[in-house]
Amino acid sequence: MVESREVVTLSAGEQARLARDGELTATELLEAHLAEVSRRNGVLNAVVALDESLAYEHARRVDAVPREERGVLHGVPTAIKDFGHVAGFPNTLGHRHFAGSVSRHDDLHVARMRAAGMVFYGKTNIPELAAGSHSVNKVYGTTRNPHDPSRSAGGSSGGAAAAIAARFTAVADGSDMGGSLRNPAAFCGVVGMRPTPGVVPGADSPNVFDPLATAGPMGRTVADAALLLSVMNGQTIDAPSTPELDRPRLRALRERDLSGVRIAYAPDLGGRVVVEPAVRAVLDDVALALQSAGAAVQDGCPDLTGSDEAFRTLRAAAFQASWGPLLEVEPENFNDFVTGNIREGEDVTGADVMRAYAEVTRLTRSAAHYFGEVDLVLAPVTQVLPFPVEWDWPHDVAGTAMNDYLDWMRAAWLFTPLGVPALSLPAGYSGHLPVGAQLLAGPRRDVELLELAQAVESLLGVPATAPVPSALASSPSL
């Protein structure tokens, strides 16, 4: 029998195997993880809306499933990002207007996680309306980084990344428009993947053709992220253009030799971003390690011309359409930079949107051609190390002023309009703070990206989870 304190260190795949084989019950897995939540979440605030009663009821139902019908993530406990619906749990979106809401249904990707045997015990914290990469809101407060509670956990999937790093769960869902899976993964030293748009069907979205926003997986390892992606992917009548990925390959990633792999290294995205020297130093070491492993590493970057304007136009239009009416009646419940983003959308015309979509089309086609000559792009995920938790956002990077709350995150979202899969991989540390490497592959090469990322993960050997500082070991219970 596995000791309860060891259970939380196991991969999601191993936890599920033990539960499928009857060596552990879903209830025992839940109990072990809730003990970790109780011990450390009082400081981190990664998990919100915790409901142990509902969770144990769910676990008992999962335990009753016959062995031959148990799913690939049977018994694995997790919490769902507070931007998606889970039946019986609040869905506040980090905004006071929705603070009293309780979901009556599961979003599609949540329903698929439930069908795979996962057990839900709460939600993970986010910024207000999932905007920005610092998980603080007026409903639940601030999420702190497990590596250093004085620092930000990133966002918008900051609660999810912190929960994984703190061993509250092995895998979690997230979503990404401008880096919301990638940025917090980099800050917390875990894996966060933005799939090719459409790979995780947006059946719950009012715009199934949205080229910017997508749900995706997070995990302590590449293999666990791939396992969760295999559950989230799949066609549905409500999103008929969803591509089917190779599930057997996702669930048993093959060993890849990095020798001869063609890698473009873009440390500043062709001069488009400023990066802190501490971040650049870790990425340089990764590039050297890849070269030593036989990869063909050369400086290079996909065409990003026009990406800035296209992204900002479509984001502002989406924010105005989604939140503009609420802003008019409850302006006091919005922070200043979300308000600004919504106001920007008021000036966007239909012609502006069509020009932005045309630019996204051009960028997507250009990227597809680029990745005909290159297997991977290596780039920074974030331009800064995890910043002090009291900040709203970094107002300068390496002495260069940032114009707004999006500027300091350009290293992630400039790639968003290209329509390619992107992954944040733990790359190393600057002192005690994690640094992530962004790996990108061609459109719909999600499985290939994960296989190559696993090879890089093995090469680098970066520890998968945060240490347990004494301040957290004695944190108050929930």
Helical fraction equals 25-40%
Give the rounded overall mean pLDDT.
Answer: 95
Query: What is the top-level CATH class?
Result: Alpha Beta
Major sheet: 8 strands, mixed
Oligomer: single chain
The CATH architecture can be named as Alpha-Beta Complex
Q: Helix- and strand-based class? A: alpha+beta
Shape: globular
CATH superfamily: Amidase signature (AS) domain
Approximately what portion of the residues adopt beta-strand conformation?
15-25%
Q: Which value, in Å, is the CA radius of gyration?
A: 21 Å
Query: Which strand order spans the largest sheet, edge to edge or round the barrel?
Result: 8-10-9-16-17-13-11-12
Describe it for me?
The chain is an alpha+beta fold. It has one domain (4-473): Amidase signature (AS) enzymes (Alpha-Beta Complex). Helix content is 37%, strand content 15%. It has 16 helices and 17 strands. The strands form five sheets. Strands 8-10-9-16-17-13-11-12 form an eight-stranded mixed β-sheet. α5 (108-115) links the parallel β2 and β3 (119-124). α11 (307-329) packs across α12 (336-346). The longest helix is centred in the middle third of the chain and has 23 residues, at 307-329.
